[in-house]
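Proteins fold reproducibly. Look at a concrete instance:
___
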Amino acid sequence: MKVSCRDLGTMDYKDCWDLQQSLFDTLTARKSAGSSPVPGTGNTPDDAGTVLLVEHPPVYTLGKSGHTENLLVTREALEGMGAQFFHIDRGGDITFHGPGQLVCYPILDLERIGIGLRGYIEALEEAVIRTVAEYGITAGRIAGASGVWIDPEGRRPRKICAIGVRSSRFITMHGFALNVSTDLGWFTRINPCGFTDRGVTSIASETGLLPPMQEVKRAVIEILGKVLQCEIAAVP
């Protein structure tokens, strides 16, 4: 099964959300039409979708079931800091995206890949766990709290990667955000993912390293392909 990968560099959140929706709509249309590709899209029957890699300018997003009280400052204050705010249609609560953070949006047909939604979320977590292990970081999961955590069973659990997904007819949107060298000060304006008793961290904060973003992207895509058992290939 083949998956395309597009490296978008830095892109405004709303523009990227619109692109996700367009790709999602294309997959949905193809599924409604059966196994035949949609004319004019370039898709073939063995295509399972597209993975987008991106960094965003500073932006806070609140999931559909999130709580606005987890935003600890006013929206006017955010705008004064140069940050945007969006209430969006993924699962999960509030999080931050910004420079130094790798955001990965897989728009995939899970039925073509042969995986269920729970297994898919676990696969995203596993891909990140293996990626940060490349930098000497031991990470894991916390029951009932999606994402990837450092010291998950210890006294100071801290999240290095947030995950929030939308799925309809087993076609996905949104994805995960891995803190590489993110300015963690941005997270002090929210209760990250709704938690008041757990911290946030990054590869840089844990290791003192500043790995090049392109290096991390390559690792994520290589490992995600292995976990999902797909061929993920770069396209312009």
The longest helix spans residues 13-32.
